[in-house]
Each structure stands twice: as structure tokens, then as C-alpha cells.
Amino acid sequence: MNDNVKKYMQNIGAKAKTASRLIAGADTNSKNNALNFIAASIIDNKSELIGANAKDLAAGKANGLDAVLLDRLELNHERIQAMADGLRQIAALADPVGEITDLNFRPSGIQVGKMRVPLGVIGIIYESRPNVTADAAGLCLKSGNATILRGGSEAINSNQAIGKCIKQGLKQAKLPEDAVQIIETTDRVAVGELITMQDYVDVIVPRGGKGLIERIANEARVPVIKHLDGICHVYIDKFADKDKAVAVAFNAKTHRYGVCNATETLLIAEQAAGDVLPELAGKYQEAGVELRGCENTLKLLPDINQASAQDWQTEYLAPILSIKLVSKVEEAIEHINKYSSGHTESIVTESYTIARKFLTEVDSSSVMVNASTRFADGFEYGLGAEIGISTDKIHARGPVGLEGLTSQKFIVLGDGHIRV
Question: Residue 348: is it exposed, middle or buried by C-beta count within 10 angstroms (0-12/13-18/19+)?
Fold first, then answer.
């Protein structure tokens, strides 16, 4: 069985590699046409998508999937429309492929610049949400990449149905149908093959729980664009405006709980805590947020639980918040750089000097001043749809949109120039 899966995956890889060379040379109009055709096909086949999804939902209930996972799995008319709208939005974005920058004449007379180019073949491994199939395919297509998609076994019927719409759109646009391939087997061996096919796959993007991403990061033999978790912080400085501090810290935690850019730890300067914390704690508790504080926090909020050492390094994805009082901005920065996952951090302050220090010294993919961590998102950054968030420092960092799915190569323009 393993040999059969390996041969199957090698065949998919070879077809993707061939398609990647064709899709890399496709013009913007062809790619946009394909995206719009795919969107139209998704709407036209709405009944088929809902029918396929019903099979996945029934199997999920039979297998004991909880309510949260079943909600992520469900496709309804609104979500199907959102998939189509997302593809049309990608079509409306500027095409990064072929963009030439930094073109300068050298003393020799040649011109040297950089051209933006696709990465090649992108393998994407994800769980639960079938809408990722359309989003990921659209982003890879617009950025000139071929993609191999491996969704969760719980969404196999939904993903295959969406895949048929994608192939129909590619065919209508006269682009290679193998530019987007969806793995049909649910065998976990396929994942192991995908992340080690160095001859065919240029980069892997895992989207899912920490366990999945850790496995991919540890076992992959090709580069991985990833983030493991989102342990994000808000620091309320002694020079913070109280109203801004309360609004930002409350929104950063309570806007949505189960997302990677929700704040998990609140740091407050000791000088500001007495003024800000009681009001903020009241709002949190009214919203049903469990508070866990350091010893100094408990002096102001004696009815909350004491935070443990583990709390500072936990991504709750739930209505739980750990709170620590710090003596100065340097202590806040030290705490963040020690416990943060490198995702997103925010400072609330009216001091330009302290804000600059925080921006410079906090080592995360997004660092904010007087803004909620919930803004760490591709759409909010003006990137359009995103393939995910990267906390790596090489290649892409932060929300990964179209540009993050491309690289650059040097180009040299001459007119018979020779080196002397």
C-alpha cells in the first residue's frame, strides 16, 4: 500500500512540476480569467458542493467530531458565495509576477535589476475547512505557482467537489489543469511523501493545529512557511492613554478567541495598572474571560487565579487571559522576546521614544503601536487573501499574500557588453 501511495504521489509531483513551468509563463489576463471561471463554476455547482459536504458532515458526526470542528467543516450558501467572492477579489489584485525593480546602470554599461518570479510547486497541507481549497488554489494560481493540496480526511468529499470546479475553470481559461491538484487519498503516508519530494516540490505551507505543523516542520525536506502558534501580547505603557488602552486590550482578546492573532498575555506598567486594570478587568469578566495574574496583579484583583509559569507560554485560543505587571518597557520587551511565538505584539503609549524602542527591539513578525493585535491579517494589511502567517525570518514573514508566494531573480540587460 505504501508503495502505491508513493507512486501516486510521485506522479502528482511530476505533473505539478510540468504544469508549474506553464503556469509561470501565463499572462495576467489568463490567470484572472481562470479565477473568475472557477468562481462561476463554484456558484453554478452550489448544489453539488452542498451535497458533497453533507456526506462529510454525516461522517464527521458519526466519528464524533465536536461542534467547533463541524462548524469549520460546514459549507452553506453563504460560505460558498464567500469562496467565489474571494477568488474574484484575488483576480482583482495586482499581479506580482514579472515586476522589475531596482533597475540601475552599472559603470560597465549593463543594467542590473530584480524580477519577481513564482516559487514553483507549492504543497499545502490543511485541516477541516474546505474553503481553504479554493483560497489556496486561487492564491497559488495568481502568483504563477502550481499547487498540490492535501486537505483533511474529514473534508475529502467537499475538497474533491471544489477541485472539479477548479479544473473546469482552468480548462475554460486554457491553462494546465494539473496546475492545481488535490490529493485523493486519505492515507497519511501521502503527507510524508509530499513533504519530502525535493525533486518536485519547492515549498510546503501547513495550515492547521500545532501538532500538524510541528510534524511538518520536523519531517519536511523542503522549505516550510509556517507558524506554530500565536502567543501574542499587548503592553500598556505608563504613558498610555487610558481610553485607548482599554479599547485596544479588550478588542485584542475578545474580538475572537480561537484565532492566532488574539492576545493571550496582557502586560501593564506598574505605574498605569491602578488606573487601567480595574476597569479593564471588569469588562473582561463581564465578557466571560477568565483572568490569571502575577502576584502583583493579584494585589489589585484578589479574586482572580494566579498565573503559573506555563501560562506565559500558552496559546489559549479561549476566553482566558494572563496578566503581568512590569516595572518598565525593558521588562515588557524581555518578557515578550522570551515567551512570544514571534507572531504579533502591540504597545499602547503616547511616548514616541518608547514606541520606537518597542518597534525596534521586539522580535516578532508584526509589531504595533496603539492598535489591536487582531489587525495582523492579510486583508487588513491590504494584501488581499493570505495563505497563512509566517513567523520565520527567511523569505516570508507575517501575513503571506501573493508577494510572499514569489521570489526574485537578478536580471541583467546588456547590448553586447563583455567584461574586461
Answer: buried
